[in-house]
Specification:
This protein has a single domain, classed as Rossmann fold, CATH 3.40.50. The chain starts with a strand and ends in a 9-residue tail after the last strand. The radius of gyration is 17 Å and the shape is globular. Strand 1, helix 1 (about 15-25) and strand 2 form a beta-alpha-beta unit. It is of the alpha/beta class and about 240 residues long. It has helices spanning about 15-25, 55-70, 95-120, 135, 140-160, 180-185, 185-195, 205-215, and strands at about 5, 30-35, 45-50, 75-80, 125-130, 165-175, 225-230. The chain is built from eight helices and seven strands, in the order E-H-E-E-H-E-H-E-H-H-E-H-H-H-E. The chain is about 45% helix and about 15% strand.
């Protein structure tokens, strides 16, 4: 059965892989983007909507357009996020709050807007894309780690609030994934990260997308409030 899916931050990387996986499954898929939409074949089958999730008015406008063109959002993948790395003693208040506002409060904004229609339908799937560093922490990423850790508390609170309406809320915590961001790292840095991963490699966006589509499926209807690592074992800590 075709469902209406929204993937925020769906123009590239993990978000685009998730969106393409839902299209391949026959769903109606919208993505939001801030810098620019995907082009060519990558954009086929996608409703691409400009939206800055730090702006409530833009969030409302994006949902309204999606509802008018596709219908009410039944599956939300909250993926949009940013980084602004720096050691704490050099990190400004603005750097900290901007990352938290995008990654955590932005997730709250889109989830709250989606839940309004999910409650009426008595069905919904919400999946937050967090990170392994939300649990382990990472030097130079206090803002990012805090924002990703906060998604777990947000998700579990929503899971408890809306379980009676058959709305499930889960979190995926990816480890190092092959994206444009990680490709820009030096060979030495990539090597050090790879050595820290028990499986000895970076993951792929498609591996994250496979977990997302499972959690969105009927087969995962009894899973809520879970944090699912897709990290090659990195979250277990050092051996």
């Amino acid at each position: 059965m075709s469902r209406v899916v929204l993937v925020t931050g769906g123009a590239r990387g993990i978000g685009l892989a998730c969106a393409r996986a839902f299209v391949d499954a026959g769903d109606q898929v919208a993505i939001t983007y801030r810098s620019g939409p995907p082009t060519g074949a990558e954009a086929e089958g996608l409703l691409c909507v400009a939206c800055d999730i730090t702006d409530q008015a833009q969030v409302d406008a994006a949902f309204t357009r999606i509802e008018e063109e596709l219908g009410s959002v039944e599956i939300l993948v909250s993926n949009a996020g940013i980084t602004d790395d720096g050691l704490v003693l050099r990190m400004t208040d603005d750097s900290f709050t901007t990352v938290v506002d995008t990654n955590l409060t932005g997730g709250f904004r889109v989830a709250k807007r989606a839940i309004q229609k999910m409650m009426r339908a008595r069905f919904g799937r919400i999946i937050f894309i967090s990170s392994v560093v939300g649990a382990t922490g990472q030097a130079g990423q206090a803002n990012y780690s805090a924002s990703k850790a906060g998604l777990v508390g947000l998700a579990r609170s929503l899971a408890r609030e809306f379980a009676s309406r058959s709305i499930t809320v889960n979190v995926i915590a990816p480890g190092p994934i092959t994206t444009e961001m990680t490709a820009a790292l030096s060979d030495d840095r990539q090597g050090a990260i790879t050595n820290a991963v028990p499986l000895g490699r970076f993951g792929t966006p498609q591996e994250v997308a496979a977990t997302v589509t499972f959690l969105a499926s009927d087969a995962a209807g009894y899973i809520t409030g879970a944090v699912v690592p897709v990290d090659g074992g990195l979250g277990m800590g050092p051996t």
